[in-house]
């Protein structure tokens, strides 16, 4: 199952929607996760229909910030388990295969919200009995070598992320 996960940083710009369409044509994913859409579901439904995905789920933005969209193709079975402004947690199977739990994440940019965010993810992990995969933009840089310029990374936030990976028994997979 191919997945495209993209921080759209707003889908109101025609160049962004063209870039999305080009990516979808190129990669032909079964599942698409868009974070920071900054758009309500009515607008996103028009995009989904134009791009020929059969299913969808949305978390509307708060004012002009955030917004999540999840689209899936024919043959994909999706059950929404939990959602928040920062994630969509699902159970998904493809053509009747064994279901996997997947959590699509857009981490809070505000430091004040990060602690509760990690607590929520730890709770999801504790309640998970099936195979679990997270697809993420956690808004945290884990190591200074992953960052160019600007302020140094926040070591407390990096520790939260790295502790979560360790405690949850997860490994990072390469992305394209």
UniProtKB/TrEMBL annotation:
It comes from the Eukaryota. Residues 5-126 form the Endonuclease/exonuclease/phosphatase domain. InterPro entries: Endo/exonu/phosph_ase_sf, Endo/exonuclease/phosphatase. It holds the Pfam family Exo_endo_phos. PANTHER family: ENDONUCLEASE_EXONUCLEASE_PHOSPHATASE DOMAIN-CONTAINING PROTEIN, RNASE H DOMAIN-CONTAINING PROTEIN. This is Endonuclease/exonuclease/phosphatase domain-containing protein. It comes from Hibiscus sabdariffa (roselle). The lineage of its organism: Eukaryota, Viridiplantae, Streptophyta, Embryophyta, Tracheophyta.
